[in-house]
């Protein structure tokens, strides 16, 4: 139950921070200061992980919730800043491949987390503190990379003689601008919300599900839970490149959504087994692999579609 509350706090803060970014009413801040935003949100994220690690070490649940609250404030906004920089560097039929490669690196981190974290906890008598501090170290490394990216992006602008752009009042975001977005944009938005709402919860609970429902030990459950991320790590750049060449992004989005629905339904009807069962249910790999395909296809097709509908 406490783990579920932590997830809810994280996602609510992610939505709130995204809404705040939209409601600021000044698109100039986010069109021209993505470098500063990347550093700021990366810093907030790192502070959140530090607070979370302190709470985990001290077995202080309210402090852990506070850490996730802070982490959520920075996480999604940092991703938006990253995506904006990627979209600035890559155009046209390069975009899906670039987003796919970016997603691949992100999923590599998820794979590493799923494989390493259970072993770190197991090696420290079931205590999570050390594993959380290792995560904090990775966040610090990510923050250093954010500084490096901001420097490279700034240097590139200087080399290309890109002047800072100041938007007029007419060009700044206003709430009534939402009415100018066409139906394709809103369909993508609803699809994105529904797809990630279902798959993210599945992935978050996959480790516990493999352990408590399908009979695997904690280490193997952690490894199985990252199968979709591992597949996404390898497939996303390839699928992104393919979709750039083939097009038909809407068709790929539809196919991936159908696969994800079938995988979730299949999981729901699988039989439960006791923890550490001598014969765990390896058929759980079927929905995990299916979701890996669906997740890779969807992300590669979706994010490259947005510039075409706004």
Helix content: over 70%
Poorly predicted spans: 12-32
Structural class of the secondary structure composition? mainly alpha
Task: Please report the distance between the alpha carbons of the first and last residues.
Answer: 40 Å
Number of domain units:
2
Descriptors for this entry?
12 helices, 2 domains, globular, mainly alpha
Could you explain how this protein is built, in words?
The protein is an all-alpha fold and 310 residues long. The chain folds into 2 domains: 1-94 and 107-178; 181-310, no CATH class. 78% of the residues lie in helices and 0% in strands. The chain is built from 12 helices and no strands. It has helices spanning 2-23, 27-32, 34-57, 61-89, 95-123, 129-159, 183-212, 218-225, 227-246, 249-268, 285-302, 306-309. Helix 7 runs antiparallel to helix 8 and helix 9 packs parallel to helix 11 (285-302). It is globular, with a radius of gyration of 21 Å. The two termini are 40 Å apart. The relative contact order is 0.12. The model is unreliable at 12-32 (pLDDT under 50).
Helix-strand layout with pairing:
Elements: H1 2-23, H2 27-32, H3 34-57, H4 61-89, H5 95-123, H6 129-159, H7 183-212, H8 218-225, H9 227-246, H10 249-268, H11 285-302, H12 306-309
């Amino acid at each position: 139950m406490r783990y579920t509350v932590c997830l809810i706090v994280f996602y609510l803060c992610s939505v709130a921070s995204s809404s705040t970014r939209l409601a600021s009413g000044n698109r100039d801040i986010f069109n021209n200061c993505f470098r500063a935003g990347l550093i700021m949100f990366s810093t907030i994220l790192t502070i959140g992980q530090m607070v979370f690690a302190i709470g985990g070490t001290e077995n202080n649940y309210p402090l852990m919730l506070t850490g996730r609250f802070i982490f959520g404030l920075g996480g999604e906004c940092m991703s938006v800043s990253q995506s904006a920089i990627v979209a600035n560097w890559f155009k046209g039929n390069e975009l899906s491949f670039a987003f796919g490669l970016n997603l691949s690196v992100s999923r590599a981190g998820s794979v590493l987390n799923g494989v390493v974290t259970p072993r770190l906890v197991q090696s420290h008598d079931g205590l999570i503190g050390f594993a959380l501090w290792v995560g904090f170290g990775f966040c610090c490394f990510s923050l250093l990379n954010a500084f490096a990216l901001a420097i490279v992006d700034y240097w590139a602008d200087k080399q290309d003689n890109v002047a800072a752009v100041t938007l007029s009042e007419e060009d700044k975001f206003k709430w009534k601008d939402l009415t100018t977005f066409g139906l394709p944009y809103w369909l993508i938005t609803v699809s994105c919300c529904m797809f990630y709402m279902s798959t993210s919860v599945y992935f978050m609970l996959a480790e516990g599900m493999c352990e408590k429902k399908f009979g695997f030990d904690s280490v193997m459950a952690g490894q199985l839970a990252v199968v979709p991320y591992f597949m996404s790590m390898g497939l996303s750049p390839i699928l992104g490149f393919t979709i750039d060449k083939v097009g038909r992004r809407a068709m790929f989005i539809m196919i991936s959504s159908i696969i994800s629905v079938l995988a979730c339904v299949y999981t729901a009807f699988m039989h439960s087994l006791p923890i550490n069962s001598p014969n765990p249910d390896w058929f759980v790999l079927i929905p995990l692999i299916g979701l890996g395909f669906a997740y890779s296809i969807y992300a590669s097709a979706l994010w490259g579609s947005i510039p075409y509908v706004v």
